[in-house]
Amino acid sequence: MGVRIGIAGISHETHTFLPDKTGLEDFDRTAKHGKDILETYRPTNSSIGGFIQVCEPAGVELVPIVYSSGGVAGTVKDEVYDKYIGEMCEGLGNEADTLDGILLSLHGAMVTESRQDTETHILKDVRKAVGYDIPIFVALDLHGNIDPAILTKATAIFGYHSSPHVDEDETGRRAARALLDMLAGKTRPVTAMAKPGMVVPSIFSATTVSPARDIIARVMDWQQKPRVIDVSFFFGFAWSDVHQLGASAVAVTDNAPELARVIVDDLSSAAWARREEFAGKHGVYGLHDGVALAIEKARTASKPIVILDHADRLSDTTFVLHELIRQDARGVAFPLLCDPEAARACLEAGQGKVVELAVGSKSSPQAGGPVRLTGRVEWVGEKSYIGTGLMTHGERQDLGLTAILQAGGIWVQITSHRHSLIDEDPITQFGRKTGDFRIIVSKSKTHFRAVYEKVAQEIIIVDAPAYSPVDLSVFQYKNVPRGLYPITRI
Length: 490
Prior knowledge:
Layout lengths: L3 E11 L9 H5 L3 E2 L2 H6 L5 H9 L5 E13 L4 H18 L5 E5 L12 H13 L5 E5 L15 E4 L8 H16 L5 E6 L17 H12 L4 E7 L13 E7 L2 H17 L1 H5 L4 E2 L1 H12 L6 E5 L9 H8 L5 E7 L1 H10 L4 E6 L11 E16 L9 E12 L2 E6 L9 H4 L10 E4 L6 H7 L2 E5 L28
Parallel strand pairs: 1-3, 1-4, 4-5, 5-6, 10-18, 11-17, 11-18, 12-16, 12-17
Antiparallel strand pairs: 2-3, 7-9, 8-9, 13-14, 14-15, 15-16
Helix pairs in contact: 3-6, 4-5, 7-8, 10-11
């Protein structure tokens, strides 16, 4: 019998300060089971895709169990863990006697109602199902909050090197190649981790600009050294009140534990030395000033000005939209504003009709309050498509019931499912071009940079008073380690 490898996973980036919890419906909508996982993810930029892309050409028999993603939202209900980890463990456990290894695609910042360090709990439960003789290699998001305890359950862990996450599939390939090398007797992986005692707001984890770019350059330098299998740096996910919050350096070496320790200590020290840059507000504007600057620059720019409304985690805050209207902005694209009620109202009115709607801010009073818009419904209907962007290529993007409203000088796209603008698809799939607009608003954090650093004349970061501002002092952290920079724990 040839090599048999089980693959499975679950992903969620949990913002524990958000008002609503994430339930089964969010995971059920994206869940794939058994062989459907292979057909769905083989051509995609995903860790699962990377596993498949390495293993199938090598003649490995893949045993896919389950994979689901709940996106970025509030604390995950325990029912999600019970259902999906239960399915994962049952499936892997039933195959354990014939499996040579396991590849898991997880996130690293998933939090459930009763589990702060969910990924370690997942590994513990998988180990109960399959035992400790089977190697388990895990691909994780660069924004994971990683606890050293995970290394007692996982054989090795691998993180994205890029934010924007254009290398999700390559991370899966790295993990799969390393597992096959181990199974072939070529390597004996050992792993070390160091935590520098800091956490990074997401916009400062963009690896296309300093200081994050410099840390990843150091990661890549170490990765080329002899006896080094893999190196990762996890910047952490700042809006999560958990005991393992914070950045982590991880190194996997070929039976060289001292070298692994040298690498992680070096990366940890390098990150700590740049901690003020990672936590600062350099290049960030307040709401009024940022919008005014964008309008001023758009008057003479040859390409669109991008306003980055980075603090919105639920794709429905309205602070920037309110301000654009107050300042009479023109030629604006405001894509992917999530409001199923407003989308239904547009459907009921019909394409071509003029409607008056209160849009946005349905998630909570923290979201800025609804915006009264009067405009013509340019398009309305169910919308999904296969992504063409650097991060989304090959993956189906489901916006749900969607409406395009032209309200004065603002083109507003109202969706029923949460997404953020990370490529041109949400505009081009509706017959428009990014160059049609003077100003484009994105609610991404770093992922938009893979495309919009080229599309935009300039990117203006606006720190609106929404769910995830740069200033972490507005949150009451109770569980994080004392002294974690730049957080003050109550």
